[in-house]
């Protein structure tokens, strides 16, 4: 056995038996049916699931390697992007060597699509796709675990109990990430924090930076070990968040009642909503590799924040939300072409913003505005365009 068998992605020789297991799973067929045909799949889950399952099985009949599976997934990605997006753009990839493995540390807005879009950009530029870090909280259904690991995902053990078990799990993860980059020469993707940024505030968890170095030999310095990982901050920007209403509902529950109880398989449903929902324009910005002499986890997290926020592409939706909260036009650039935001130039986008808010329950709208406005606030703070203390981050329940 390989020492990473419990968390690593599946190998090519495991693809075919795993596919057979997935395709014969009734939960998988029902989930795909509801994703592909939302209304009909809900009314007639069994027959629609059977029909969709037959079609997917036919699509995957010649898939025997991970690359074969990803090529099939590519066709579904193309269809999804054509139906729910107005374009995917990217920047910064030209600064990265195609022969080098990197650890991409990204802000986190969507469970499945964040790494999927990074993969898409890499694939379209004829580069190897990444190994993806996923929490075991997402693996509530057997088919979900199989699907993720077929798509080059490795498991982050968040369900470990007790300090000793948690320490072993984190050190094991640290070891695997370092092994992937330095030995396997395989790039990895991991979110900058546990869980999505439901309030639109992108900040790196220092604990994650400490985890990266848990496998560091005692005689090696922190900075030297971090340089071996070839960390690259990645900033993912969405014009529209497909799960904005669901995120707002969760934050409302937390602010009003002090807690939020996640429903069974809720993460799986959020994945489906993210795929099916409208996203508008999406931009992937690759930052500069971190080669500095970082002394500790705090310095490392600060630099990742600087690049993620600095490279974040604002959309008119962000600016109109900011105006709704603060009553003034933000002095920022918008769009991947970085043009100064002027309200009068985006009348159609303003109508879209108003219509989107009207479709959301009134009690949740404040949280949706904050979600879209906070990237503007963060950028203003980090660019020192306004004193940080004069513009508080709107986090809903206690601030950031």
Report what the structure shows.
It is a single chain. With 400 residues, this protein is an alpha/beta fold. It has two domains: 245 residues, Glycerol-3-phosphate (1)-acyltransferase; 75 residues, no CATH class. Helices cover 50% and strands 11% of the residues. The chain is built from 16 helices and nine strands. The strands form two sheets. A seven-stranded mixed β-sheet has the order 1-7-6-2-5-3-4, sandwiched between helices. A two-stranded antiparallel sheet has the order 8-9. Helix 1 runs antiparallel to helix 7, helix 2 crosses helix 4 and helix 14 crosses helix 15. The longest helix has 21 residues. The termini are far apart.
What is the strand and helix layout of this fold?
Blueprint: H1 15-23, H2 26-36, H3 38-43, H4 45-59, H5 66-84, E1 85-91, E2 103-106, H6 113-124, E3 131-135, H7 142-150, E4 153-156, H8 163-182, E5 188-191, H9 206-212, H10 222-229, E6 231-238, H11 244-257, H12 266-276, E7 280-286, H13 297-311, H14 316-326, E8 333-334, E9 339-340, H15 347-358, H16 362-382
Parallel strand pairs: 1-7, 2-5, 2-6, 3-4, 3-5
Antiparallel strand pairs: 6-7, 8-9
């Amino acid at each position: 056995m390989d020492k990473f068998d419990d968390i690593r992605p599946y190998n090519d020789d495991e693809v075919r038996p795993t596919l057979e297991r997935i395709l014969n799973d009734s939960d998988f067929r029902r989930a795909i049916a509801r994703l592909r045909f939302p209304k009909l799949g809900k009314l007639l889950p069994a027959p629609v699931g059977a029909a969709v399952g037959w079609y997917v099985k036919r699509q995957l009949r010649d898939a025997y390697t991970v690359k074969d599976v990803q090529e099939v997934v590519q066709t579904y990605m193309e269809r999804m992007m054509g139906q729910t997006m107005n374009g995917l753009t990217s920047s910064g990839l030209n600064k990265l060597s195609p022969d080098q493995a990197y650890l991409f540390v990204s802000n986190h807005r969507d469970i499945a699509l964040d790494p999927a879009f990074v993969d898409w950009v890499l694939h379209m530029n004829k580069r190897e796709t990444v190994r993806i870090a996923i929490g075991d909280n997402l693996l509530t259904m057997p088919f979900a675990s199989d699907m993720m690991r077929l798509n080059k995902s490795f498991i982050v053990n968040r369900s470990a109990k007790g300090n000793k078990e948690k320490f072993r799990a984190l050190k094991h993860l640290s070891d695997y990430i370092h092994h992937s980059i330095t030995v396997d020469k395989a790039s990895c993707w991991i979110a900058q924090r546990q869980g999505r940024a439901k309030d639109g505030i992108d900040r790196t968890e220092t604990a994650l930076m400490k985890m990266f170095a848990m496998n560091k030999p005692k005689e090696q310095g922190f900075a030297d070990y971090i340089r071996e990982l070839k960390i690259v901050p990645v900033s993912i920007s969405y014009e529209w968040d497909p799960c904005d209403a669901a995120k707002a509902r969760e934050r409302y529950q937390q602010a009003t009642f002090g807690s939020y109880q996640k429903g069974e398989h809720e993460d799986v449903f959020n994945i489906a909503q993210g795929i099916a929902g409208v996203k508008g324009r999406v931009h992937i910005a690759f930052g500069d590799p971190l080669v500095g002499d970082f002394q500790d986890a705090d310095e490392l997290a600060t630099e990742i924040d600087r690049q993620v926020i600095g490279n974040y592409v604002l959309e008119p939706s962000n600016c109109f939300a900011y105006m709704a909260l603060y009553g003034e036009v933000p002095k920022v650039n918008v769009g991947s072409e970085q043009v100064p935001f002027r309200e009068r130039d985006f009348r159609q986008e303003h109508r879209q913003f108003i219509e989107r808010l009207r479709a959301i329950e009134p009690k949740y709208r404040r949280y949706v505005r904050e979600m879209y406005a906070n990237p503007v606030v963060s950028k203003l703070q980090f660019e020192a365009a306004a004193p940080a203390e004069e513009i508080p981050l709107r986090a809903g329940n206690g601030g950031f």
